[in-house]
TrEMBL record, chain A:
Belongs to the thiolase-like superfamily. Thiolase family. SUPFAM superfamilies: Thiolase-like (SSF53901). It is an enzyme of class 2 (transferase). Transmembrane segments: none annotated. Residues 282-403 form the Thiolase C-terminal domain. InterPro entries: Thiolase, Thiolase-like, Thiolase_acyl_enz_int_AS, Thiolase_AS, Thiolase_C, Thiolase_CS, Thiolase_N. The active site is at C92, H360, C390. GO terms for molecular function: acetyl-CoA C-acyltransferase activity. Its EC number is 2.3.1.-. This is Acyltransferase. It comes from the Bacteria. Residues 6-234 form the Thiolase N-terminal domain.
Automatic annotation (TrEMBL), chain B:
Pathway: Lipid metabolism; fatty acid beta-oxidation. This is Fatty acid oxidation complex subunit alpha. It comes from Falsiruegeria mediterranea M17. It catalyses: a (3S)-3-hydroxyacyl-CoA + NAD(+) = a 3-oxoacyl-CoA + NADH + H(+). InterPro entries: 3-OHacyl-CoA_DH_NAD-bd, 3HC_DH_C, 6-PGluconate_DH-like_C_sf, ClpP/crotonase-like_dom_sf, Enoyl-CoA_hydra/iso, FA_oxidation_alpha_subunit, NAD(P)-bd_dom_sf. Keywords: Fatty acid metabolism, Lipid degradation, Lipid metabolism, Lyase, Multifunctional enzyme, NAD, Oxidoreductase. Residues 512-607 form the 3-hydroxyacyl-CoA dehydrogenase C-terminal domain. Pfam families: 3HCDH, 3HCDH_N, ECH_1.
Length: 404, 735
């Protein structure tokens, strides 16, 4: 028996700068997560006993984010101990993968509703602090030609011919779109301001945003990965072993055209048609299809292209059948490559800005893309949207939404 | 017992003396391990013995494992070689660990017996690993000896506990620095590096070690890693301070070795895995990786070529029998250019009296100054002294007077590559030489038999081909002309041995051996360029397969005008027999553009003002537009590897090369042929003759006769053999 999976709600926290002086630096990963769960419950007047599981994307699962944060968040929330929780990690797509896994189980008839989402407090639990054999175990690092993601992004730019100016121009546009979206309250339906235990607001907007970013201000930034690529420890030499037709790696990425390090969380309520009817909830969209792939771990971040090809193929669709795209702005070249590969107009992609402007809270971003996509599909009255992310170690995830 | 001897003195201190019979330097064998084990058992089991000092009866401590035994390990390990090798390595670990524990109670860490090492001189490989297992290492302050773990240089890594012990002593970053380069260090530097503890006056070596043993307490003999709460220096692989070091080390190693060598990978893998577990588990991990490296054909080939066969050639494996000692007393060098000056320098440095001759005093003074520059650099680096410099320079007489050649027993002519000029100086020199003297010409291209015509005695005329720069390049190619006699060959070999280089002896034919093989390599690169293959792919593929320089960079280094002139001369000399290499066009294009290579800061590459390569010259893409379909990197590598390797086989077929050992050693030392492979013949053996034939046939269809498998290779493939299986370790002439 298969049935359709619907999205009944999608919320996200504002993104705080992932630094000691970031507004969310005082908030624990636990509190932010349970606040998201409570918000979903409150906004939908949800009977949590009807929820099968909480699937929580989270990349750096150590310290306060360790020991299955999903279950801790449930216990810390008002949803009750009968609700279990599972933390998952597909790196940057964890939040989307949480949605996909929830949807897959609804479709399969394993439970009728899920809360899927994720969290990452990058300022509190530093990226990479969970170790990882792929980078540190020399046997695998050499077998897989490991290079850090910044180098991978620069390989994309070199391989597919994106100049520094093109990457910077993309970043300027992301900032402009995000600022405009905030000015026009386009995120209003999704944003759940972060409050303290007294109900006082800690953060109600994406504070990473830099209004007025232009080519000149970005032009002043030095390439961030040149030193580790060319000098110490010399990742470019590893990259050239994998890409021997390149003479050198063109280092074009920097803090201004790469995704921002931020704190944030997001949650999506997914359920069957019957679940909605039973609870008097109106579905916002149908989760039409989900896909994931594995690809070259060295260039690493090109996954959105093959995973999109796969999901379109599996649904008998063409790229033109998609009205709106959310392609995670891990690095400018990632999105530029996506648009180049499918010859997709920038006017269909990331219409309200993305992670370059607002930040990329690793485990949460995938679920945030769902809310971005839904908001814009509703605002612009579009039928079909696709969200996709590049994923560390050469993976990619994608989801297609259809309005109902 | 024949390798280790035990004596107990009146104080109850055992002296275990390493003294392998009939060897100048101790090496560890399986027999040695058994003996050492038995003595340690005696020391630990006899209540009258308080402790021990392990030392050597020879001037040095030990040179390492018996690499002949190691090289044969796969064969001698029995039906399941991996199990056999692993068991052997673990056997060694247990003995060294027994020394390290000294019989103490592993819980209370009390009751052990102190065991010190006293190294009178050089200790390498297992020599250092035995010392590292001891509780304290004393070393004589005698100048000269070197200490370290150089295993990586012959294709393995320290597998006698050296990797794990150095990791635990100094941390991964420091240990990698030492072990991945394999440098041997002076006593002081070795002590700082963590190999040794105390440098003491040579005469007090044993007494100081005994004093220490006498006074050592229970706490003195417990290694830090056997104490509770031990923290690995620099942190383990997932320690916040350690992790980025491991990530960086893997990338650095990968970039430097191109992933072509099994041993450096294993070395770092051991450090990573060992950093995460207790010491005894770490030793077992080391043994498992050691086994995998020993089972790898690359390591076996490297040991064979870079150690066993290289040493055999240096010791005169192909020296004519029965010719008495022909060591050079007084050397004449004709021509004080770069080659002549270099030859004069290395000879004077080896203690030979040198007369350096050129047309003008200015030229010879400049030649001698070359030596001075090198020596000044060595002094600045602390590798030489003002006295040594003066002694070397004193041995070089720089003059324009041929009469100064009187008394020379060898003359090496290194003038301009021109038959006429060479003949002229030959005559001038021979007029001054006594009857027994040998005349050698340093040439890379001119046939020796032709040059010998200018000599009054072709039997005493020989080619000695030095590589540039002479003071750095280890290979010397000795070329026999048609009439060259045994004494001339012996003389050349004895001379090469004096200047501590590695000789190969080949017969006279165009380009001899080294250049004969390197030219097809460069040409193949240029042919691909002409076909529209992306030059970056050509260069990167070459480096990826383990060549030091891509063919285009090599072209720039060796000079394009020279290639142009040699090409022209070759065409002229061969006349109708000349077959186009398909590369004349590109060489001409560069030559006519005045791009002569690195020296003109313009060649296949662009250079900056300082002569640093900036990138491939865009002009190449204009003349040779990039083809739509680019080959797979593997095909580029196959073309570059087989073009050289097949030529080496043809040199063997043609009797230019007489000994595959020389072919392999000469290729690695002469032009840096993929050292991981052990040389072209070892490479073809690793690839498998049958596969090499098939690959050649495929490439021949697409890329021409260069890849037509040589008949000898076909024969060997048909017989299901390999080159070493057929020729073994002997000259083809003798086979």
């Amino acid at each position: 028996m298969t049935q359709d999976a619907y999205i009944y709600d999608a919320i996200r926290s504002p993104r705080g700068k992932g630094r000691k002086d970031g507004s969310l630096h005082q908030v624990t990963a636990l509190d932010l997560s349970s606040e998201m769960l409570n918000t979903i419950k409150d906004r939908n007047d949800l009977d949590a006993t009807q929820v099968e599981d909480v699937i929580w994307g989270n990349v750096t699962q150590v310290g306060e984010q360790g020991a299955c944060l999903a279950r801790s968040a449930v216990l810390n929330s008002d949803l009750g101990e009968q609700l279990p929780g599972i933390s998952i990690n597909r790196f940057c797509a964890s939040g989307l993968e949480a949605v996909n896994l929830g949807a897959a189980q609804v479709k399969a008839g394993v439970g009728s509703a899920y809360i899927s989402g994720g969290v990452e407090m990058m300022g509190r639990v530093p990226m990479g602090s969970d170790g990882g054999a792929i980078a540190a175990d020399p046997t695998l690092a050499m077998k897989s030609y490991f290079v850090p993601q910044g180098i991978s992004a620069d390989i994309i730019a070199t391989e597919y011919g994106f100049t520094r100016d093109e990457c910077d121009a993309y970043a300027v546009e992301s900032q402009r779109r995000a600022a405009k979206a905030w000015d026009e309250n386009r995120f209003e339906r999704s944003i759940a301001p972060v409050k303290d235990r007294n109900g006082l607001t800690i953060l109600d907007h994406d504070e990473y945003l830099r209004r007025g970013t232009d080519m000149q201000s970005l032009g002043a930034l030095k390439p961030a990965f040149k030193e580790q690529g060319e000098v110490m420890p010399g990742f470019d030499a590893v990259a050239l072993l994998k890409y021997p037709h390149l003479e050198r790696i063109n280092h074009v990425h920097h803090a201004g055209n790469s995704s921002g390090i931020v704190d944030g969380s997001a949650a999506v309520l997914i359920g069957s048609k019957e679940f909605g009817e039973r609870n008097g909830l109106t579905p916002r969209a149908r989760i039409k299809s989900m896909a994931k792939i594995g690809t070259d771990p060295t260039i690493n971040l090109t996954g959105p292209v093959p995973v999109t090809e796969k999901i379109l193929r599996e649904n008998g669709m063409e790229i033109g059948d998609i009205d709106l795209f959310e392609v995670n702005e891990a690095f400018a070249a990632v999105v530029l490559r996506f648009m180049q590969a499918f010859d997709v107009d920038h006017e269909k992609v990331n219409l309200n800005g993305g992670a370059i402007a607002m930040g990329h809270p690793l485990g949460a971003t995938g679920a945030m893309l769902i809310s971005h996509l839904l908001d814009e599909m509703e605002r612009a009255d579009k039928e079909t949207g696709l969200a996709t992310l590049c994923v560390a170690a050469g993976m990619g995830s994608a989801t297609i939404l259809e309005r109902v | 017992m024949a390798e280790f001897h035990l004596n107990v003195d009146e104080d109850g201190i055992a002296i275990i003396t390493w003294d392998v019979a009939e060897k100048a330097m101790n090496v560890m064998s399986s027999q040695g391990f058994v003996e050492l084990d038995a003595h340690i058992d005696t020391v630990l089991g006899d209540d009258n013995i308080k402790g021990a000092v392990i030392t050597s009866a020879k001037p040095d401590f030990a040179g390492g494992m018996d690499l002949n035994e190691l090289g044969a390990a796969r064969v001698s390990a029995g039906e399941n070689p991996a199990q056999g090798i692993f068991d052997n390595v673990m056997h060694g670990h247990r003995i060294l660990r027994k020394i390290e524990r000294g019989g103490m109670d592993p819980k209370t860490l009390k009751g052990g017996k102190p065991i010190a090492a006293a190294l009178p001189g050089t200790a390498a490989g297992i020599g250092i690993e035995v010392a590292l297992a001891c509780h304290r290492v004393f070393v004589s302050d005698r100048p000269g000896p070197k200490f370290g773990l150089p295993e990586i240089l012959v294709g393995i890594f320290p597998g006698g506990g050296g990797t794990v012990r150095m990791l635990h002593k100094v941390g991964m970053a420091n240990a990698m620095q030492l072990l991945s380069q394999g440098k041997m260090l002076s006593a002081d530097k070795a002590a700082k590096a963590g190999y040794l503890d105390e440098v003491v006056p040579a005469d007090d070596l044993i007494s100081r070690a005994k004093d220490w043993v006498r006074g050592a307490s229970d706490a003195d003999i417990v290694k830090p890693w056997d104490k509770k709460g031990f923290k690995l220096p620099g942190g383990h692989a997932y320690h916040p301070a350690g992790m980025m070091n491991y990530v960086g080390a893997a990338a650095m190693l990968h970039g430097q070795t191109k992933g072509a060598y099994p041993a450096p990978k294993a070395l770092l893998a051991v450090m990573y895995e060992a950093s995460l577990v207790p010491f005894d588990v770490a030793l077992e991990i080391e043994a498992r990786w050691m086994t995998s490296v020993m089972m790898d054909p690359s390591s076996a080939a490297m040991i064979k070529s870079l150690f066993i066969n290289k040493q055999a050639l240096e010791k005169g494996a192909n020296r004519p029998a029965g010719v008495p000692d022909m060591r050079v007393q007084k050397l004449g060098v004709l021509g004080a250019g770069l080659m002549g000056a270099g030859i004069a320098h290395v000879s004077a440095k080896a203690g030979i009296e040198v007369v350096l001759i050129d047309q003008s005093q200015e030229a010879v003074d400049k030649g001698k100054a070359y030596s001075e520059t090198i020596l000044d650099k060595a002094i600045a680096r602390g590798r030489s002294t003002a006295e040594k410099k003066a002694a070397v320079l004193d041995r070089i007489t720089a003059t324009t007077d041929y009469a100064a050649l009187k008394g020379c027993d060898l003359v090496v002519e290194a003038v301009f590559e021109d038959v006429g000029v060479k003949a002229e100086v030959n005559k001038l020199a021979e007029a001054q030489l006594g009857e027994g003297a040998i005349f050698a010409t340093n040439t890379s291209t001119l046939p020796i038999t032709d040059l010998a015509k200018a000599s009054c005695d072709a039997g005493r005329f020989i080619g000695i081909h030095f590589f540039s720069p002479v003071e750095k390049m280890a290979l010397v190619e000795i070329i026999k002309g048609r009439d060259t006699g045994d004494e001339a060959v012996a003389k050349a070999l004895d001379f090469v041995r004096q200047i501590r280089k590695t000789p190969i002896v080949v017969n006279d034919a165009r380009f001899f051996y080294a250049n004969r093989c390197i030219v097809p390599y460069m040409n193949e690169g240029l042919r691909m360029l002409c076909e529209g293959v992306n030059p970056a792919l050509i260069e990167n593929a070459a480096k990826q397969m383990g060549m030091p320089l891509g063919p285009l960079q090599l072209g720039d280094e060796t000079a394009i005008d020279l290639a142009y002139r040699i090409g022209k001369a070759t065409r002229a000399a061969m006349g109708d027999a000349y077959q186009s290499t398909g590369t004349e066009e590109v060489v001409e294009y560069l030559y006519e553009a005045g791009r002569y290579g690195k020296k003109t800061k313009a060649g296949y590459y662009d250079y900056d003002e300082a002569g640093k390569r900036r990138g491939i010259w865009p002009g190449l893409a204009e003349k040779f537009p990039r083809a739509e379909d680019q080959p797979d990197v593997q095909e580029v590598m196959d073309r570059l590897a087989l073009s050289q390797s097949f030529e080496a086989v043809r040199a063997l077929e043609d009797d230019v090369l007489l000994d595959i050992r020389e072919g392999d050693v000469g290729a690695i030392l002469g032009w840096g042929f993929m050292p991981w492979s052990g040389g072209p013949f070892s490479y073809l053996d690793i690839l498998g003759a049958g596969k090499a034939v098939r690959l050649g046939e495929e490439l021949a269809l697409k890329h021409g006769a260069t890849f037509e498998p040589p008949k000898l290779l076909r024969d060997i493939a048909a017989a299901g053999e390999g080159f070493y299986a057929r020729f073994g370790s002997q000259s083809k002439a003798a086979a």
